[in-house]
Target: Formate dehydrogenase-N subunit alpha
Amino acid sequence: MTNHWVDIKNADVILIMGGNAAEAHPCGFKWVTEAKAHNKARLIVVDPRFTRSASVADYYVQIRTGTDIVFLGGVIRWLLENDRIQHEYVKNYTDLTFIVREDYQFKDGIFSGYDAEKRHYLKESWDWEKGDDGYVKTDPTLQHPRCVYQLLKAHYARYTPEMVERVCGTPQDRFLKVCEMMASTATPSRAMTIMYALGWTQHSIGSQMIRCGAMVQLLLGNIGIAGGGMNALRGHSNIQGLTDLGLMTNLLPGYLTLPADSEVDYDKYIEARSFKPLRPNQLSYWQNYGKFHVSLMKAWWGPAATRENNWAFDYLPKLDKAYDMLQVFELMHAGRVNGYILQGFNPLAAAPNKAKLLQSLSQLKFMVVMDPLATETSEFWRNVGESNDVDTKSIKTEVFRLPTTCFAEENGALVNSSRWLQWHWQGADPPGEARSDIEIMSDLWLRIRTLYQKDGGKYPDPIVNLHWPYAVPHSPTPEELAKEYSGRALTDLVDPKDPTKVVRKAGEQLNSFGELQADGSTASGCWIYCGSWTQAGNQMAKRDNSDPTGIGQNLNWAWSWPANRRVLYNRASCDVNGKPFNPGRKLIAWNGKSWTGFDTPDFKLDEDPANGMGPFIMQAEGVARFFARQTLVEGPFPEHYEPFENPLGYNPLNGRESKVVSNPAARVFKNDWAQFGKPDAYPVIATTYRLTEHFHYWTKHAHINAILQPEQFVEIGEDLAKQVGVNAGDRVKVSSTRGYIKAVALVTKRIKPFRIDGKTVHMVGIPLHWGFTGLTKPGFLANTLTPFVGDGNTQTPEFKSFMVKVERA
Ligand SMILES: Nc1nc2c(c(=O)[nH]1)N[C@H]1C(S)=C(S)[C@@H](COP(=O)(O)OP(=O)(O)OC[C@H]3O[C@@H](n4cnc5c(=O)[nH]c(N)nc54)[C@H](O)[C@@H]3O)O[C@H]1N2
Ligand SMILES: Nc1nc2c(c(=O)[nH]1)N[C@H]1C(S)=C(S)[C@@H](COP(=O)(O)OP(=O)(O)OC[C@H]3O[C@@H](n4cnc5c(=O)[nH]c(N)nc54)[C@H](O)[C@@H]3O)O[C@H]1N2
Ligand SMILES: [Mo]
Model:
């Protein structure tokens, strides 16, 4: 979230699109209720289904799965056409005035630089035109034909209300009503928040959907202000912590990145990430990359990370490609993976294309499952179901199960969607032989280190030199680890202006990442967490919920990264002179000498607004980008591409004749192309989602949840049910090219057919919670049906839009 849960109560308009917060985030949803009750906020829900969120909305609009870019692109066009944008904001705080290179082009659904054979773009032309001074050229009059404003207008010219109706199936009048409601927040005194989750991420163009939403928010001046923002509602209670700590295969903690294969030179690695400002007087905060990186390496390898060995740079793995879930199972499927450790992961249930998953897991020599429960994956070899994807007798995989504790049985921090690190305390002792994840991992590592120390090996240095300063080596405490993430001084730190003055003694915890150094004198395991555990103690354990601000900026409740900042880009809540756009919801303000207010400002307290430093300090430009210069794989502006399985077989935005249908830059593995179903054989759209009564695949192990939702069902609209010949309670068989499931038919008015480019298309909804372990009635895994393709950038699977056939079972 750019903002935070409590802040939702400040919104005047709330758009829930690409998520179902009332169902999947029922506790956080109370802030929507607050906004409606105390702020007369209007709630808009845009969803293919009439959901629990829709049931309390002021305005509900149906949209076909996978078409949100057409809808949002239509909003962008309408806002520009009707001049309902916040001029002062976009002119000063975005790239609309920036000029793009001459060779940039967009034609027939494809951007310049496309290599059709490799399904890959060369992104050179997606860049700024620079002057001799090295800075981007701009045109404050917005007249230049290649300024971002003009390119944006041209790009979305095709996204008319007629097109929205044709592609999304959303009637024009309803679409226009949403445009009006959103546009009411283009004035400085009103704010709209966008709440989204998997309805946007789980598509082959998911990242671009989210970008498109952010672009709408920028045009309306809704980023950086109270009650505004782009608010990703995260999933597992600590999934925000997972990405923060660099558990994605291409990341290091704090969104630092692993070097690529080709990056053997340490200085070049750092330089490539320390972006120089692209406009005068900008901060470009990533210039501090070296300080964060060296401090991380000191935390990991301690005395073994020295200036001489480039702070142990060679200890880091170098990536030939990202090893996302789809990539890993592809390799496993090809027999190229021997062993696999699953720590709190149930991929047989959670990953797409169960048959492929089964075949993949069956190729392993060994599998280690760290989990408090018996999962489908830990028992994959039972080969339950009717499709007989593998023969149990042929499986040679040895499975080791290591029972773990779960969060309630240990101390620690959970990071919520608001970026708050909240400390929690153990509530019960773990049962049986369960051990904490930390203990299991530590013990494993200690034994592996011993083996390397004894037997040597190809390159044992990173393993034998790992810094392990914990009091009990086989069981570091959560407190020790939390202090390490936050960071401390390794030698006395002095005032740069007066080297005789020691500002931080060796061994002391640091106050903030502003203290981190690139000379080995500081260590911090995750720079964005620096300050979460200071000399004053554990900031995450703060529990003062008083709100002197009146707008829910509870700065003494837990600790928010970065620097306890609650609203990211909060500088954008003020005009260029530092005066709040909306004094009634002030976050910060410039008082002539200093920034003051209710949040941690983005930069130094005495940064005079007259210097013109932009609010978007993580960008080299200092401003927010409409034109995503060379960042995403499929282009600098979001463009609509159809899901890989789609109901028409063509992209109605480009017309029947065009060959450009689905994301031209999404990765598809060779053998999966043939597995995409065509609409003649698989005419019904399917989407998968969750229910309040279950959490994924685990709560079916708990009696109370199993009683609440005991049996698998599929939601079917009344028209389709009639066509198929099923009544409520009958069983249906739903098949894709990859397999089938059978479940009870829940016939509902909540799912209505779509009218797409003149054709009537039906949809079924499949809750994902069932499987063959636990206390609920055994069910089929929903992911028997889903396709093996992901978002072009993140590789998040396309779980939300695929094609099936529905029959009576
Ligand atoms: N009770 C409960 N709560 C949970 C979870 C759980 O299992 N149970 N899981 C947690 C996790 S890990 C996550 S990631 C979050 C997920 O939170 P959500 O994303 O809110 O959950 P989903 O149920 O997957 O639903 C997404 C919604 O998107 C809609 N949708 C599908 N396709 C599209 C589309 O193309 N456009 C638009 N606009 N909407 C679309 C679906 O109809 C559905 O209503 O929930 C978390 N909360
Ligand atoms: N079709 C379809 N598929 C989906 C989705 C969808 O919307 N549609 N959603 C996707 C999403 S968003 C997600 S997040 C995934 C979820 O996929 P997974 O994360 O694989 O599934 P979960 O069942 O949430 O959790 C995995 C295991 O973690 C264990 N666990 C809990 N606490 C601990 C702990 O402290 N330590 C350890 N070691 N284990 C623990 C649980 O017992 C559980 O078995 O599913 C994805 N799959
Ligand atoms: Mo999730």
Observations:
- The pocket of MGD (ligand 1) is lined by residues 17-21, 24-25, 46-49, 51, 63, 65-66, 68, 197-199, 235-236, 687, 689-690, 692, 694-696, 800-801 (CB under 6 Å).
- Residues 325-408+434-463 form a domain with the Rossmann fold fold (CATH 3.40.50.740).
- The chain has 20 helices and 33 strands.
- The mean pLDDT is 97.
